Write a sequence for this structure.
């Protein structure tokens, strides 16, 4: 093969490769695309390996083959990675039928499941498993043994459901862990690990939330022209022609329909006209009613907690009196969101804005209830701390009495008495375990109420509407009760509130993270089934925000508010004297100073003491605040610059569009003027000129008076008109020829199209 043929063949191969890469952009029918793609691939496969020269031909063919293999591997790996995203197909199915607003809840749920899975790995890998494998076994010390008075009922179902009995003295709660500085042959420092995991839980969560918010803000930037030709883009570019599955096609069809509904709602809200004074009055009234509801719910929680403290001294309690606090908090979370939604009808906001207001109000409700619960709970903790000192003195006195009685009975002061049975040792209140039990009971109660609400409020309602509609007095689907809608605000705030309880309670109950992982895992399947089987799309479907940062903002706020009571506990309250990894310490953070003094060089202790000096901490905090303010100012400046650039680009596009429109209109006016001029074809044809008279016509001299030139305005204007003279030229010269004949359709605006 000659060099010219090789070059031509290589050029053809490159053209075929370009065709393969740009085949999707060709305005061809699908059948023609497939034919051209198949032919191009066959041509490339046939001739690409023959383009090497001499000995390098095989090496070139090998490189081409490996390049193809690598491209195929990348494509398969990308498909595999997409397939490994948990519940992606379920979420896409929900989005296609219920819109992006409902799907955003399930995306948020999946994200929280991933974060809690990492927290579960930290807690169980660094706290629970080391204690189980290397710590003392159950029954060896009092904190790991059920008291003798509680052993007869320690396995009762009612006791276990209250997380007492064997549950209370297990790895689920703080009090089970020993205070030995090192355990096992690895000399694992369990108290230090417990504290670091408790602090690291908040640190990791804060890092992940802020990183996700930054990523979402970058994704949600969008281009400036996203609102232009919305319906045209949706009409002509929404369908995916590579879909080959009928079920996927049905989901895509439903998704396109839902997106049209979302855009129609946005357009209607933009064009809505309202009475501004009446609207302001109704919104003020709605906020007043909701504020009264929030205050009443907070007072009810405080009253119930105080009442439960009175119940603690009684033994003959009913099931309701034992679980009154958990039931009241769960019922408030169940009743108040629909009440807020009913009151919010007075405001008549856009659905997206109404959802944010609803989320904020329910968030305020949950947060107020949670902090009211915490304040009342810490009052109970202070009471237990006062009791603890007396119990500690009593336990010391009981131990001395035991040894004294043993010596007196045996009349032997030299032998060592056997240790007291762990189940007979006097126990302190262990307020950390009590707090952990309350958080676990709240979490489990919330799970039960949520699942029962879905089962009764959605599934049973849908069954009644579906099967009794044919024999009822009115249309159950169109009227009352109808099918339920998915409550986005209530479910989102339920997740956020539950996560706040996990963050606060995980320090006192390490097993709470595992319970939450199981809850999120079951919620994904249970709620996906419920929303597809029992709910209908919202009457006013709306698009979710691209960034989805409103949910993350609420989560960041609840994270900060959850950090405060834990830090207060670590830095202020003394730990229990007979349970937990920090027993025997004055404050929980003393374990850090103990590790620095015993395990690190002396200069490290001095360095940490200098670093903990308030004279260095306060300037460092001020410096960070100033840095954050500076970066925020720079970010705002960049944002404003981007907006200005977008406006300039939009103005440039508008000017270009106007220029093209003006050019088209000018051409149309010139064409209309040409049509209005006398048509050359209407004039009588001039006689054919003789050959000898074809030279240029002679100009007759004009007689003028001496000293005067030709008066063009007078002499030329008075000249007789020449019917055969050429008309003014209004277009570039072209070949001469007979003009179009007269006939119909030669009126205004229907001339020859401009060249």
């Amino acid at each position: 093969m000659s060099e010219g043929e090789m070059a031509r063949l290589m050029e053809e191969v490159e053209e075929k490769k370009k065709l393969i890469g740009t085949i999707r952009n060709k305005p061809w029918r699908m059948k023609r695309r497939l034919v051209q793609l198949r032919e191009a691939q066959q041509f490339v496969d046939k001739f690409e390996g023959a383009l090497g020269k001499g000995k390098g031909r095989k090496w070139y063919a090998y490189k081409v083959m490996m390049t193809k293999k690598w491209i195929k591997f990348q494509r398969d790996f990308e498909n595999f990675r997409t397939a490994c995203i948990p519940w992606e197909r379920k979420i896409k199915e929900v989005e296609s039928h219920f819109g992006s607003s409902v799907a955003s809840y399930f995306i948020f749920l999946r994200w929280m499941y991933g974060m809690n899975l990492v927290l579960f790995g930290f807690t169980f890998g660094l706290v629970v498993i080391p204690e189980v494998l290397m710590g003392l076994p159950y029954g060896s010390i009092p904190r790991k043994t059920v008291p003798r008075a509680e052993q007869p009922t320690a396995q009762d179902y009612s006791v276990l459901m209250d997380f007492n009995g064997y549950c209370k003295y297990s790895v689920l709660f703080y009090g089970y862990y020993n205070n030995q500085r090192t355990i096992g042959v690895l000399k694992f420092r369990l108290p230090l690990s417990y504290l670091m995991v408790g602090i690291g839980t908040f640190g990791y969560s804060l890092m992940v939330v802020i990183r996700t918010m930054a990523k979402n803000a970058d994704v949600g930037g969008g281009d400036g022209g996203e609102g232009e030709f919305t319906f045209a883009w949706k009409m002509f570019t929404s369908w995916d022609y590579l879909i080959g599955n009928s079920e996927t096609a049905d989901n895509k069809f439903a998704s396109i329909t839902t997106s049209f509904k979302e855009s129609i709602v946005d357009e209607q809200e933009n064009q809505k006209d309202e009475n501004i004074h009446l609207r302001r009055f109704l919104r003020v009234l709605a906020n007043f009613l909701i504020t009264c509801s929030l205050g009443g719910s907070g007072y009810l929680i405080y009253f119930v907690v105080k009442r439960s403290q009175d119940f603690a001294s009684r033994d003959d309690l009913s099931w309701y009196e034992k679980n009154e606090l958990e039931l009241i908090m769960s019922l408030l979370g169940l009743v108040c969101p629909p009440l807020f939604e009913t009151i919010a009808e007075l405001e008549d906001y856009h659905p997206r804005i109404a959802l944010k207001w609803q989320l904020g109000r329910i968030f305020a409700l949950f947060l107020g209830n949670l902090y009211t619960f915490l304040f009342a709970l810490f009052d109970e903790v202070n009471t237990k701390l006062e009791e603890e000192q007396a119990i500690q003195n009593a336990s010391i006195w009981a131990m001395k009495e035991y040894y004294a009685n043993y010596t007196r009975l045996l009349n032997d002061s030299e032998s060592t008495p056997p240790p007291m049975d762990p189940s007979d040792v006097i126990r302190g209140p262990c307020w950390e375990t009590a707090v952990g039990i309350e958080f676990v009971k709240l979490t489990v109660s919330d799970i039960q109420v949520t699942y029962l609400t879905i089962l009764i409020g959605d599934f049973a309602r849908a069954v009644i509407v579906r099967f009794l509609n044919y024999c009822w007095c009115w249309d159950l689907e169109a009227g009352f009760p109808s099918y339920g809608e998915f409550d986005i605000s209530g479910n989102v705030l339920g997740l956020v509130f539950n996560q706040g309880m996990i963050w606060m309670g995980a320090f006192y109950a390490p097993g709470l993270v595992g319970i939450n992982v199981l809850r999120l895992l079951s919620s994904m399947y249970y709620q996906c089934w419920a929303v597809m089987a029992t709910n209908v799309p919202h009457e006013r479907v709306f698009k979710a925000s691209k960034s989805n940062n409103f949910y993350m903002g609420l989560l960041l706020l609840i994270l900060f508010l959850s950090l405060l009571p834990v830090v207060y506990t670590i830095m202020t309250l003394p730990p229990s004297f007979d349970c937990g990894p920090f027993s025997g310490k004055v404050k929980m953070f003393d374990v850090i100073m103990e590790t620095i003094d015993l395990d690190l060089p002396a200069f490290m202790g001095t360095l940490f003491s200098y670093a903990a000096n308030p004279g260095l901490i306060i300037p460092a905090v001020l410096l960070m605040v100033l840095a954050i303010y500076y970066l925020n100012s720079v970010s705002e400046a960049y944002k404003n610059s981007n907006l200005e650039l977008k406006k300039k680009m939009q103005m440039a596009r508008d000017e270009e569009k106007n220029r093209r429109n003006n050019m088209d209109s000018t051409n149309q006016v010139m064409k209309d003027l040409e049509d209005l001029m006398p048509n050359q074809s209407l004039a009588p044809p001039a006689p054919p000129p003789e050959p000898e008279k074809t030279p240029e016509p002679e100009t007759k001299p004009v007689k003028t008076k001496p000293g005067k030139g030709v008066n063009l305005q007078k002499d030329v204007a008075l000249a007789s008109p020449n019917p055969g003279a050429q008309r003014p030229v209004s277009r570039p010269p072209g070949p001469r020829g007979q003009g179009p004949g007269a006939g119909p359709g030669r009126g205004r605006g229907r001339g020859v199209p401009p060249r």
